[in-house]
Design brief:
It is a single chain. Helix 5 crosses helix 7. This protein has a single domain, classed as Metallo-beta-lactamase, Chain A (4-Layer Sandwich). By secondary structure, it is α/β, with parallel strands linked by helices. The protein binds fe (ii) ion.
Length: 234
């Protein structure tokens, strides 16, 4: 999990493979993130179509070092165990999410916010609770993998007022810490393709416009939200 850190000044720009996978009414985005200098790679939230993922690994000529899990919902962990077993690699999930969800798997590693290296890529977890108690976004270079925390068009569902307050705090944190040129890679799309610039999401996403927890929570939890619309994935 930890390596000998290479100087940050060494150039690297991770390759981000966008994998759109589906089963039934569910469509998810999985990501294959590869260090071009070593071909070491990580997968983010693999689900639904192992053949698509394995083909992407082959096409990228990438060796899988591990699987990053943003949270423990079924559509984000669907293929985590079988792929970790097949490739003999670790699964990473926040300690908070493991405790809250009860998720267990061989090779599961509970993480905090300490970064680690995969090849020359620095993987930096950011704890961003709200959708679930232990949701994590992963920052790799200028790419943020957000699971169900931040979508281009919105943010994840929050199961109550306290969770909505946590989500507000998490989104405020992203606003403080992310560079405008960061590319946002969510677990789902509701219209816009993955990889939007954070600078654009900041302007266009209504959930990033609130100034206080109460106003945010009232909007996030507003009545009359259509379940059909919530699950209309692109
Ligand atoms: Fe989720």
């Amino acid at each position: 999990m930890s390596g000998n850190p290479l100087p940050r000044s060494m150039p690297y720009a991770p390759e981000v493979g966008v994998l759109r996978t589906a089963r039934g009414s569910m469509t998810n985005y999985n990501y294959l993130v590869t260090d071009p200098s070593t071909r070491r790679a990580v997968l983010v939230d693999p689900a639904w179509q192992a053949d698509v993922i394995e083909q992407a690994l082959d096409d990228a000529n990438a060796g899988l070092d591990g699987i990053l899990l943003t949270h423990a919902h079924p559509d984000h962990i669907d293929l985590a165990k079988p792929l970790a077993t097949k490739y003999g690699c670790p699964l990473w999930m926040s300690r908070e999410e493991i405790a809250a969800s009860g998720f267990r798997a061989p090779g599961l590693v509970g993480i905090d916010e300490n970064a680690w290296w995969v090849g020359r890529m620095l993987v930096k977890p950011l704890l961003t609770p709200g959708h679930t108690p232990g949701c994590v976004c992963y920052l790799i270079g200028d790419n943020l993998f957000t699971g169900d925390v931040l979508f281009a068009e919105g943010c994840g569902i929050c199961p109550g007022v306290d969770a909505a307050h946590q989500m507000f705090d998490s989104l405020q944190r992203l606003k403080r810490e992310l560079r405008p040129q960061t590319r946002i890679y969510p677990g789902h799309s509701f219209g816009k393709p993955p990889g939007q610039l954070f600078a654009d999401v900041l302007q266009e996403n209504i959930y990033l416009q609130f100034r206080d927890r109460q106003g945010f929570a009232a909007f996030r939890l507003r009545p009359g939200q259509s379940r059909a619309k919530l699950f209309t994935f692109h």
